[in-house]
Every structure is written in structure tokens, then in C-alpha cells.
């Protein structure tokens, strides 16, 4: 089948992106490219020898890199992996920093000190020879110093933070913003997953300890306007359930969650309802694991038929269970 680019294309043909995409699909098949990575082999000659020189020059200033980035935008392309990088590409400090970030990951460098073992051969073996020779006089120490100087660092990434660092509310906020992005928490509700492990695994253990060892305390400072439900966190603050108002707040919320509008509705309550909504520890610590005691505190003036409660829920009450009720 004859294609427009095998003969003289009409004026303005290459200004239409859909035409350029048709050519790129055709060129990929012609060159035997089966994966996106195969396009790293493409050069100016690849286009010029296959009737695409006009397109490359007209739409992309003779840059295969620009053409491929435009036609396959969902892929993150690394300019240095092409046969030649675009002209003036390394002049942009952001591009140089991106390469160094990538090189660090390729070589599994975990700390600043690890950069001292990088050699010229490592740059040349990882397509960074042009950057090293043209911008840093072929000096590894020069490029590493420049990179580490401009690399954005956070205080908590070091072995120790400055004295009184965590005493600053601004520093605590910066850390929490960073932690949220790292954990991919997008909604306030996502923060209920927060636990001690998250802090210690991300160099925030001191902040966690200073906050009383409870995610709730941290979140009330970080997002003070949000109505946090302490029982939905993995752990409530120490002594939380000893306070009557905290227990009442939980039970009021639980009743709404379960659709209970009258005291009689609470005959349907099960231990599982408390366990799955964060009230299991409260039931055990404050009520000796007895649902009947929960109801008596929630509605102390209601005349409960406690045997009905247990029979309805499939329990056989032990003799004397209700003697003190």
C-alpha cells in the first residue's frame, strides 16, 4: 500500500499531528520496533532514509528525541539513552540533575557518601560521557560536588537533625507534608492508616515519640480543622478510653454509623461491631468484654432486658452476670 510520504506530500501535511502519528506507526513497523525501548535506536538517518526527513525538520527541528516524545507522550523518555542527546540539552541544570538522579538509582547509591565510589567509567557506561566531558572537564569530583550542592535534601534524611528541629511547628508541618506524599495519602481519611511504623521507617520516630506515641496527636496539629475520630486510628492515645466523654463520643458515633435511633435498637449490637470500628480495646479494658455494661453506661436510665440482649445475640449468659447491673 502506497503512503503519502513515499512521494511528495501536500503542503501543510506534516503540520497535522495525526499525519505524523501515522508516519511514526509506519516507521516503527518498517524498522521492526516491537517495544517502545526500540525507539532509542532511532537517529536522524533513520528518518531521512525512510522518507521522514521533511517531517523531522518541519515539525521537530530535525530532532528525533522531540519527535518521539511528541508521538509517545505517556512514556518518560531519557534523552541520554538515545544515540545522541538533543543539542544544548545539557545546558539546562534541571536536565543534568535528572540524569544524576537516574544514575544514582541505576547504581543503587543510597547516601551522599556512596557517590565517592563513582568513576569516569561509570558515566561513560551509563551514557553520561558527553555531560561529564563537555560541562565538567571530565572531572567526577566536580560533577558530584555540583549535584550534591544543588540536590534538595530534607533534614530528617540525615543521621541526626539539628537541635530543637522538631520543636518548630513549621518543621513538623514540612515533614508531614512530605510523609503524606511519600505514603500517597490524598484524602484526610487516608491518614487513619498512619501508624508508628510509618514514622520510624521514614526517619520521623522522634516526632512520633514527642507527640505522645499517638498518630491522633500528630494529625490534630497537622490538620486541626478536620474532625478526627480517634478510634479509627490503629492506636488511640494512652489513657483515652479511661475518660467517660471519650467513650460516650465513640458510642454516639457508633450508633449513628449503625443506624440506631432509639435505645431499643441497641439490642442488635454485637462485639464484632465494636471490634471492626476501633472499639474492641474499649470493650475489653473498660467493660470486661461485656456488651451489657456498654449499654448500661450509654443509656443508664433505660430499663434493659439484658437476658434478651444475650439471647438475641446467641450468647448464654453465665450465672450471676447481671447481679451488679
Give the structure's gist in a few sentences.
This protein has 325 residues and is mostly helical. The chain folds into four domains: 4-81, no CATH class; 91-150; 165-232; 240-312, no CATH class. 47% of the residues lie in helices and 0% in strands.
Q: Which radius of gyration do the C-alpha atoms yield?
A: 32 Å
**Oligomeric state of this protein:** single chain
Any idea how many domains?
Answer: 4
Secondary-structure content class: mainly alpha
How much is the average pLDDT?
Answer: 89
Residue fraction in strands: under 5%
What's the tally of helices? Answer: 17
Model regions low in confidence, pLDDT < 50 over at least 5 residues: 319-325
Largest sheet: none
Elements, N to C (H/E): HHHHHHHHHHHHHHHHH
Helix content: 40-55%
Using DSSP, what is the number of strands?
0
Terminal Cα span: 91 Å
General form: elongated
Characterization of this structure:
The model is unreliable at 319-325 (pLDDT under 50). Helices cover 47% and strands 0% of the residues. The protein contains 17 helices and no strands. The protein starts with 16 loop residues before the first helix and ends in a 13-residue tail after the last helix. It is an all-alpha fold. It folds into 4 domains: 4-81, no CATH class; 91-150; 165-232; 240-312, no CATH class. It has helices at 17-31, 44-48, 53-60, 64-71, 93-106, 120-125, 129-135, 140-150, 169-183, 196-201, 205-210, 215-222, 244-258, 271-276, 280-287, 291-298, 306-312. The protein is elongated. The longest helix has 15 residues, at 17-31.
